[in-house]
Amino acid sequence: MQAVAVQHHLGIRRQWIRRILSSSSSPSSSPSSHSPPPLPAATSSSANRISISSSSSSSSSMASASPLNNNSRWAQKTITIPPLPRGCHLLTSKILKEIGHDLSSFKCGLAHLFLQHTSASLTINENYDSDVREDTETFLSTIVPEGNSAPWKHTLEGPDDMPAHIKSSMFGCSLMIPITDGKLNMGTWQGIWLCEHRDEATPRRIVITLNGIGM
């Protein structure tokens, strides 16, 4: 219907132009004869209308639209873990010992842990049965080839170095944990692991950043 209306308008304009051209040679033609004929009234069909509605309500439905709480807090600390043997190690108690004082001042927030190394990793997993950590190390050693027969080109730092880089990328170097009422809000059986992927490890640094609302 919209296309028909456009064609109709074009037809009226063509008639108007022909009338002007035909009357321009006659001196008796008056200016009023040049005025275009009235266009037809717009159709009321809903097919020809685009309706844009907006709410006049001033209230927001998103909590994030509220102003920042004046009680927001930040804290950051870098801790150093002494060299550990190759494998997966439970670090939850060590982490809490280092950040416990600052952590207790947060009502709600996030704890971000960032490992500053490329041959170790962080992950969250079983905190009770040590067999899980041993089995995880067995899995990693099985799935990533190692030794002189492995296909890796990067061997300048030893045959275990390139496999360590791969394992580090598999688990990652950072964690994000919610904070609730001054505590890390993890599951009952969850713990923070540092996975050491080198045969001869060096000290490992972890940057811990806390952000949230204070008590």
TrEMBL record:
Lineage: Eukaryota, Viridiplantae, Streptophyta, Embryophyta, Tracheophyta
Region described as Disordered: spans on this chain: 23-69
Residue stretches of biased makeup (Low complexity): 23-33, 41-69
Pfam family membership, one: YjbQ
Protein name per UniProt: Secondary thiamine-phosphate synthase enzyme
Source organism superkingdom: Eukaryota
Endpoints of the signal sequence: none
